[in-house]
Design brief:
Blueprint: H1 5-73, H2 76-96, H3 98-115
Helix pairs in contact: 1-2
Length: 119
């Protein structure tokens, strides 16, 4: 015969196991969140640094191009105006291609990061 104490002990043991499982799952979610957040922040930092360096490089390249164009176009102000026009064209290209070169890669990166199953 079953002891009346056994079902209560089994229920208590089951309760402790479920409690332990929930605790472990919570810790797992926290660790996974921290891992993905670290990947996201490092990617943001790397992209930011590369962007700043690229902007500085473009600035100096266009500045030197202005001085190269000076004797060809007849004046420094005209060459700087040409460079300003190039900046406007680059901004227009960036705006017109923003979905293809910015939004789509960003969505793909974030969806792969947050929606992929970890092993």
């Amino acid at each position: 015969m079953m002891n009346p104490q056994e079902p209560a002990e089994n229920f208590q043991q089951l309760y402790e196991e479920v409690k332990n499982y929930v605790s472990l799952q919570t810790e797992y979610v926290k660790v996974e969140f921290v891992e993905k957040l670290t990947i996201l922040l490092s990617a943001i930092l790397i992209v930011s640094l590369i962007t700043v360096l690229a902007i500085i490089t473009l600035f100096y390249l266009f500045f030197s191009l202005a001085y190269v164009l000076e004797p060809i176009v007849g004046g420094l102000s005209v060459s700087f105006a040409i460079i300003a026009g190039l900046y406007v064209i680059l901004m227009g290209l960036l705006i017109s291609l923003r979905k293809k070169i910015i939004i789509n890669p960003l969505v793909k990166f974030l969806s792969n990061l947050f929606l992929s199953k970890t092993k």
